[in-house]
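Predicting holo structure, adenosine-5'-diphosphate bound.
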Amino acid sequence: MTITAAVLLLAFAALFYFQAYTLKQHSAHELAVIGELTAHECAAAVRFKDEDAATQILTGLRTMPQIVSARLELLDKQRLAFFGSAREEGEVEAARVTSGFKFTGDRILLAQPVTLSGVREGTLYLLADLHATSSQLLKLYGGIFGLVLLACLLLAFALSGQFLRFVTDPILRLADTARTVADRSDYSVRATKVCNDEVGLLTDAFNQMLAQIQAQDSAVRKAEEKYRLIFENAIEGMFQSTPDGKYLNVNAAFARMYGYDSPAEIISQVSDIAQTTYVDSARREEFKRLIDTHGVVELFEYEAYRKDGTKMWLCENARAVRDVTGAILYYEGTVQDVTERKRVEEVERASKAKTEFLSRVSHELRTPLNAILGFGQLLDRQGPTETQRPRIRHILSAGKHLLGLINEVLDISRIEAGKLHLSVEPVAVADTLEEALDLMRPLAAERKIELRAEVEMDAAVYVMADRQRFKQVLLNLLTNAVKYTPESGQVAVSYYSNGDNNIRITVSDTGPGIPAEKLGRLFMPFERLGAEQSNVEGTGLGLALSQRLMHAMGGAIGVESSAPRGSKFWVELPRTESPLPKAVPYKKNGSGRREDSKVVTRKVLYIEDNLSNLTLIEEMFAERPQIELLTAMQGKVGLDLARQHSLDLILLDLHLPDLDGHEVLRQLKSLDTTREVPVVVISADATASQIDRLMKAGAMAYLTKPLDVVEFFRVVDTTTATGRTSTVQMHSPAVLAINEN
Ligand code: ADP
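Done. Tokens:
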């Protein structure tokens, strides 16, 4: 409005000055005409110096309001007529103009020569004052300006009303919308578009911006919701805690883990994490030290108290969140309850320790037993005197009893530790039964017990079992039947399919049977059910071991017995198809003794650091004069001998002072000169994993100490006689593994 007024004022001022100028020009022109006419009229009066006529003519000029003074003078400047004031006359005289105009402010002085007949007679001066006219003009213009300004103001006011309606209102509404959005953080609000001008475009742009913010806001909210749900429903415990030991935020899983009803409860109740939750507060210090130094802590394990005081093991991953200055604001991370894993680890550690203990016990007990039984057997074979014979038999019987005890205790321990390695595969029932019966025949004959199979052996019947362990169970049942049945009794085996796709094998005898009240304790370790009073030897471990073996193979064992009618033990295993191509069926070969009619010179190397074991084998080989025995007490020496001699067999102990037996075997199998020489491992370590490892490494057989002399010679004779390829039957638990190549 002010600008408008100023512009208007400028315009009016310019117009006014133009008008004033025009007025001045016009007045000058008018004055010139009047001056000329008056000068002409006065010419005669001037010639004749007629003052009255001149004064009358000049007085006539008074009718013109702008002419304030007039003077008529002669050529000698003598005044002839005048009107006006003295001041004005002085003004005319001071101007010194002889002809033409002189402008001074609002005044115009005209000097008009007075001539008559072309001769100048005097000068007429006219002084006009335009002040009054200018003032009138000014007033006129001022009035017009005022009116125009007023009209402009009214127009501007009227227009501004319109402007408010069309421009300001939408902008104010836009501002209102923006305020609503800001106040409520509600981005779904939209501004109403009222016109299609610039304000309309602004409204569209504003709404578009709101739509984008709304979309982003909704995406952010969804992401927040997602992370909130993850946080709240995570299985892992999540937390934020301060360095001084307070929880800032935890999720439900975290609270549950600690036994609190809600996150709020644990946050409010725990004010010092180190004291309240850490079993060992030094671990909290360690945690803080690690996170302060590295910024993160991974897989940090510690024991913590639950709300009810019980303990648990936690595994934590955390990081430090710092401010711009690097100061730690809080820690945040996740925790997992690893109590169960810790327990399993503890059990595994204990189990490993137990296995190592068993392995050591096995080794330590077998080594001296090897000497006892080995030399005992040698003495027995070298024709002892009548007095010595029963003593030697006592030594052997006690040694074998001890060996059986060790084997069974170790087997049971291994099963219970889950360390018994079974190789479950299709096994022919008839073959296995025949083998077991063959092995039992000498004992049965000794006790005058009739041993028979009650069914036709069908070579096509197979069960899923570990062959050796299955035979071990059968031998145990047969041994018991023969042991506990009085002389001239009968022991029979049979098998049939029991309809559940299982094969049930029974061993029945005509012995005293087992009283019903004792049946419940039958499979308990060291339970001999009164047999310890009798002269029947036993450990009370056979059935306990058999039961565990059957269960480990997925089978079952039981007994139908009612004293005094004899016992009927049974085992059941899942039936399976005959594998194709079938394994070479077992062919009975009598006692299995070697037919060594021909004497052949052979070379055998024995690598062993224990002197008594060396001596034992040397003495045993005295029975085989056709075999030359080379010995080495160190692995490297043994390897040298093996390279230098053409050997038929290598007997290898595992515990050597320089090289490990495994390494010796590996080198033997990697050298061209020794690769084909059969290696029989002789070790006190009877653990399945050990045997398995060595058999896989290329050992031909694995004999365990104490050696069974008969079995030892069987393996040696078969190997040396058949030129390194043989099928060796297992006649004793001392021969734990044979590679049939
Ligand atoms: P043992 O070494 O004493 O034979 P077992 O575990 O094999 O140990 O057997 C446990 C007990 O069960 C035996 O001591 C014996 O009393 C009884 N027993 C086992 N088999 C028979 C059987 N065929 N006839 C009678 N009693 C038996």
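The longest helix spans residues 131-184.
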